Amino acid sequence: MAPAAASGGSTLPSGFAVFTTFPDLLFILEFVFGGLVWILIASSLVPIPLVQGWVMFVSVFCFMATTALLILYIVGAHGGETSWVTLVFSYVATLLYVVHAVFSLIRWKSS
User: Fold this and answer.
1) What DSSP character marks residue 16?
2) Those residues with Cβ within 8 angstroms of residue 79's Cβ, 6 or more apart along the chain or in another chain
3) Is the pLDDT assigned to residue 59 strictly greater than 50?
4) DSSP H helix total and E strand total for the chain
5) CA angle 34, 66, 9 (to 5 degrees)
6) Selection from 13-17, 76-80, 106-110 with the highest mean pLDDT
7) Rounded to whole angstroms, how far apart are CA atoms 16 and 34?
8) What pTM did the predictor assign?
């Protein structure tokens, strides 16, 4: 089966065409708000510094992941085709995160 048929035939933009499509245009907002989050977290005074460190770690990790995705799209590393395997794993990871957060909240509320 050809790769285009397996992926549904849709193509992803590469180069600076990334900045002309709606979902990919959100990269710019992610950079702006990611920078604002870093500034706000770094300038906050919190009673438990460990919490601030964890939030900063998550923020930096997400910012680096966004940067890596943007660079991969710009250089065309995806080959112009979507990958349904990556999409399936992305949804599974997100679902697991949500389930973990919900059960953690329930445990926290019951303690």
Assistant:
1) G
2) 3
3) yes
4) 4, 0
5) 140
6) 106-110
7) 21
8) 0.53
Looking at this protein, which amino acid is placed at residue 89? Answer: F
Q: Which two tokens stand for residue 35?
A: 């920078």
Confidence label for 4 from pLDDT (cuts 50, 70 and 90):
very low
Residue 77 CA, chain-centre distance (Å), reads 17
User: Most distant CA pair in the chain: distance in Å?
Assistant: 58
Q: Which long-range contacts (CB under 8 A, 24 or more apart) does 57-65 make?
A: 59/34, 62/34, 63/30, 63/31, 63/34, 63/35, 63/38
CA distance readout (Å), 97 to 4, 39, 48, 61: 31, 26, 24, 15
Residues 6+ apart with CB under 8 A from 105: none
Q: Which two tokens stand for residue 33?
A: 């708000």
Structure confidence at residue 6 (pLDDT)? 46
Q: Are 75 and 14 contacting, i.e. CB atoms less than 8 angstroms apart?
A: yes
Q: How many residues does the chain have?
A: 111
For residue 60, which of 76, 79, 92, 37 has the smallest C-alpha distance? 37
